[in-house]
Amino acid sequence: MGHDNENIYSGALGTLPLGVQKTISAASTGVVIGGIAGCIVAGWEERNIPGKTFRDNMPAFRATTALIARYTFFMAAGGALFTGVKALMEDKYKPKHILNGVVAGVATGALVGLAVRNLKRGVGACFAFAAASAASDLFDGKIRRELDRSKFFPYHENQRRKEALQNQSHNNDH
């Protein structure tokens, strides 16, 4: 997304290779998203209802914390694995090659299979992640460029044209 040839971090992290920077960024995003998802799921869990005393609350607190930690770790690992594998593939092959994302998607799908301990779900996740990544790489910005914004947002386009004409006439007057 615009970070192809530039550092996304400044300071000490800015000295790291770009692939490592992207992997750290994806893992950090995974921590946030996984923590939020873990909190939502923990709120829905009925077994985590607190007891009447502090001693009764500890098992529920441990179970809730463990659930949030599992979601956080899984999302961070998935983001880091996908981005890390894609960065390694970009070093070996062409930077914008569709195979990079497919291999990264398969690796992330395998992680899902290991996490749920189910081969069928793991294979399905491999195909799903690989297909989503291939579609993303295949249509990389092409859809956005082909859409005519004036058909969807006519007011904004007309407003921009009016402002541009006013600025042009104002500059011609001076």
Verbal overview:
Helix content is 77%, strand content 0%. The chain has 174 residues and is mainly α. The longest helix has 39 residues, at 54-92. The chain is extended and about 80 Å long.
Structural class, from secondary structure content?
A: mainly alpha
Number of helices: 7
Order of helices and strands: HHHHHHH
Cα end-to-end separation: 40 Å
User: For this entry, what is the oligomeric state of its chains?
Assistant: single chain
Low-confidence stretches: 1-5
Biggest β-sheet strands, sense, barrel? none
Whole-angstrom Rg: 23 Å
Shape: extended
Tell me how many strands there are: 0
- Fraction of residues in H or I helices: over 70%
Residue fraction in strands: under 5%
Average pLDDT across residues? Answer: 79
Keywords:
174 residues, mainly alpha, 77% helix, disordered N terminus
Quick summary:
This protein has 174 residues and is mainly α.
List the helices and strands and how they pair.
Layout lengths: L17 H27 L9 H39 L5 H19 L2 H20 L3 H5 L2 H4 L1 H20 L1
Helix pairs in contact: 1-2, 2-3, 3-4
